[in-house]
Specification:
Oligomer: single chain
Structural class: alpha/beta
Largest sheet: 7 strands, mixed
GO molecular function: NADPH binding; oxidoreductase activity, acting on NAD(P)H
Pfam families: ADH_N (PF08240), ADH_zinc_N (PF00107)
Protein name: NADPH2:quinone reductase
CATH architecture of the largest domain: Alpha-Beta Complex
Organism: Streptacidiphilus jiangxiensis
Distance between the termini: 12 Å
Number of domains: 2
Helix content: 25-40%
Keywords: NADP, Oxidoreductase
Bound molecules: NADP nicotinamide-adenine-dinucleotide phosphate
Strand content: 25-35%
Radius of gyration: 20 Å
CATH class of the largest domain: Alpha Beta
Length: 327
């Protein structure tokens, strides 16, 4: 089969097409013929080497945390799924940029009436958005949420889920003025530039502050997020887009006003609580297919453009979700 991966870490150009055998499903696994692979920022980090060097037996690592496609094989003991079904799958150990991939049955769900292209961007993004809001963020209806990287994959999904769960106000930040206009179409009540959001966020909440901040950026953005947090508010940390690394907070700032800093990692949820992840994926696919959750279809690019797509995602030039067509 064809696969797209890298033999050494580096710039987008290290991604190349190569051949590897179609894998055979073992117990509990599902073999999916991939139609579309969702593109995630974590795959940029994977390629850059932030998760270590390539360790495939043939020398290659294949990125890709989420796919849609058709089941073509089932390992022993897999129940409730059938060959020929159209499904979406979360892949905690990557591998989605390929014609075929093995997925753990716990993370494979039928897409229902959702088109395969739209379903490819769901399995990593939506459980993450749902998990940061509800599990880590303990979101309650009537609260105000501030979403950093508001026009991105996880950010735009989180905005829609927050709205569906009854948020009073959904605020967001983006990195450039061009993205402000785009993000407005995603249903935010107010949007700010990330470099200077604290005053505007406090003004938009009449000085009360926000109840929940979703932060994949880090550094000064994380610091500023605590500054705009209302008493009993929570900041959920779930990424380090700015590559700021370590960061310090004043514990007094947190405990004196009953604030909380929480973390979320989908890979860890997959390892420790696979059923939670499977349930969040099933919820998202069904809510998107029924129209209960509104969404904008992803941008679809051919897999041959994977280098270009990685470059665009890495430079902050993409908006919404991008999926790569494998068929
Ligand atoms: N913890 C988890 O379980 C988990 C799961 C999935 C994703 N994530 C994290 O969530 C974040 C978003 O992922 P995604 O796949 O949905 O990506 P994305 O938001 O679609 O794309 C990345 C966006 O991040 C923004 N950004 C902010 N600072 C940046 C920087 N220094 N360099 C590049 N872009 C920057 C850019 O938009 P603006 O400049 O307009 O803001 C860019 O478009 C990533 O940090 C990812 O690692 C975490």
């Amino acid at each position: 089969m064809r696969a797209w991966g890298f033999k050494s870490n580096g710039d987008p150009e290290v991604l190349q097409e190569f051949q590897r055998p179609v894998p055979t499903p073992e117990a509990g696994q599902v073999l999916v013929r991939v139609a579309y692979a969702g593109v995630n920022f974590a795959e940029v980090q994977h390629r850059r080497g932030e998760f270590g060097e390539p360790e495939g037996a043939d020398g290659y690592d294949v990125p890709g945390l989420e796919v849609s496609g058709v089941i073509v094989g089932l390992g022993a003991g897999v129940e409730g799924l059938a060959v020929g079904s159209s499904v979406a799958a979360y892949l905690p150990t990557f591998g989605g940029y390929a014609e075929y991939v093995l997925a753990d049955a716990a993370f494979v769900q039928p897409v229902g009436t959702l088109p395969l292209a739209d379903a490819a961007g769901v399995p990593c993004v939506y459980p993450t958005a749902y998990g940061v809001l509800t599990d880590a963020g303990r979101f309650q209806g009537g609260e105000t949420v501030l979403i950093h990287s508001a026009a991105g994959g996880v950010g735009s999904a989180a905005a829609r889920i927050a709205r569906k769960l009854g948020a009073a106000h959904v605020l967001g930040t983006v990195g450039s003025t061009e993205k402000l206009a785009l993000a407005k179409t995603l249903g935010y009540d107010a949007l700010f530039l990330r470099d200077d959001f604290t005053g505007a966020a406090l003004e938009a909440t009449w000085g009360q502050g926000v109840d929940l901040v979703l932060d994949p950026v880090g550094g000064p953005v994380r610091r500023g997020s605590l500054d705009v947090l209302a008493p009993f508010g929570r900041v959920v940390v779930y990424g380090d887009l700015g590559r700021h690394g370590d960061w310090q907070a004043d514990a007094w700032d947190i405990w004196k006003n009953n604030r909380a800093l929480a973390g979320y990692n989908i890979g860890d949820v997959a390892r420790r609580s696979p059923d939670t992840l499977g349930a969040h994926l099933a919820f998202a696919l069904s809510a998107l297919a029924s129209g209960e959750l509104a969404y904008q279809p992803p941008t679809v690019r051919p897999m041959d453009e994977v280098v270009h797509v990685h470059r665009a995602l890495e430079s902050g030039a993409t908006h919404g979700k991008v999926v790569l067509a494998v068929w």
